[in-house]
Amino acid sequence: xxxxxxxxxxxxxxxxxxxxxxxxxxxxxxxxxxxxxxxxxxxxxxxxxxxxxxxxxxxxxxxxxxxxxxxxxxxxxxxxxxxxxxxxxxxxxxxxxxxxxxxxxxxxxxxxxxxxxxxxxxxxxxxxxxxxxxxxxxxxxxxxxxxxxxxxxxxxxxxxxxxxxxxxxxxxxxxxxxxxxxxxxxxxxxxxxxxxxxxxxxxxxxxxxxxxxxxxxxxxxxxxxxxxxxxxxxxxxxxxxxxxxxxxxxxxxxxxxxxxxxxxxxxxxxxxxxxxxxxxxxxxxxxxxxxxxxxxxxxxxxxxxxxxxxxxxxxxxxxxxxxxxxxxxxxxxxxxxxxxxxxxxxxxxxxxxxxxxxxxxxxxxxxxxxxxxxxxxxxxxxxxxxxxxxxxxxxxxxxxxxxxxxxxxxxxxxxxxxxxxxxxxxxxxxxxxxxxxxxxxxxxxxxxxxxxxxxxxxxxxxxxxxxxxxxxxxxxxxxxxxxxxxxxxxxxxxxxxxxxxxxxxxx
Length: 507
Description:
The chain is of the alpha+beta class. It has helices at 15-36, 53-56, 64-67, 89-101, 103-125, 144-152, 184-251, 256-271, 273-290, 299-302, 320-326, 328-348, 394-461, 466-500, and strands at residues 129-139, 166-179, 354-365, 377-386. The chain has 14 helices and four strands. The radius of gyration is 41 Å and the shape is elongated. Mean pLDDT is 84; it is low at 1-27, 33-37 and 154-161.
């Protein structure tokens, strides 16, 4: 059987004996610390309170049947990249660029790193602190005998006698550890951990909002481009009719009033081009800024008009219970509630004494060659008790403040849950009603197209007046504009629905 290796002795000092004595003292001390440190003051977190249990545990959303959307756990949407269902490559690229380069996302990421660093700091504060120090001191004292002889005007044979410079060399190792008897430090770590998780949810919430904002700005751009193209084509057709009418007036087959009425129609249509063009520029600039670029950076890439993204054949929304799990703002509110609850115990622990274990090992000598000797070794170990027994209510006020913060966090959680349920049901209702409204607009457009075709044939045959033709064309143009705007509004309602469900965050 191999012999146990003992620490070496330096200058005759037996380190093994010292370690043995310290171990004999530390074992019962550590046992006592472990037994007492199991006590953690303050209320334990039991989870978030139940909010609107009838609604949150229902099989589906209240407005889902009216919207014609399945709302069952079997149709649970994926938490990320819902925009892929719109099948638009440019939209996908814009959202990816925004999630990578948008300043709001960078701000949220920096706050997350900050929160995690604070958690690491709290965890480090719970551990022992140790440091090493060394010093070399040199001091020369004045010769007092020489000074006295000089002041009396006499010389002394011992005037040059005196000790040389005083030299002192020290090296030591000291450590301290505040024993967390009442759990104040553990509560601080618990609070910091919950806050870091809340900030992580804030980042996800920023991603959800950003993806929805980019999608809605993109749909606005395509809507404005489509309506601008319609207005331009309508202006061109009306200009052709004006030219023909002017030619007929020259031949005496058209009246002057017909020319003036058609001129007014052309100018009114052209007047709609300028604000639409301005709206296109605004949407381009908004998309550029959302993707972290300067205004105008996307003009060439997105200048060509494209159709409004097509909606998927089916839309999954899940159920309210899934909503509570997916919405990042609800997760953030719940984690901040947990953090506020832990802070109560952190302040309650201030009512009780704090015990710190202090330890110091060191050497000191006047000769560096004799520094590490048994006779020059010193050690110190002592518990240090600190108890603020008279603070005139400061600690109690801190506890009351923490309890009020906990109550505020609980109210904010309740508000977040109720707001999420409202958002989802409102988005479902709007989506369903807009889908019905678009179907009506499409029927109106089909009727207006047929009326315009028939009236143009009657006008060509000479059995209808120019006024009748202009009225039908104006109705047709308005119906086309309304359908394009209705399609864009329905897609934006789809985007709002995804946002209300808390979808779009990246893990």
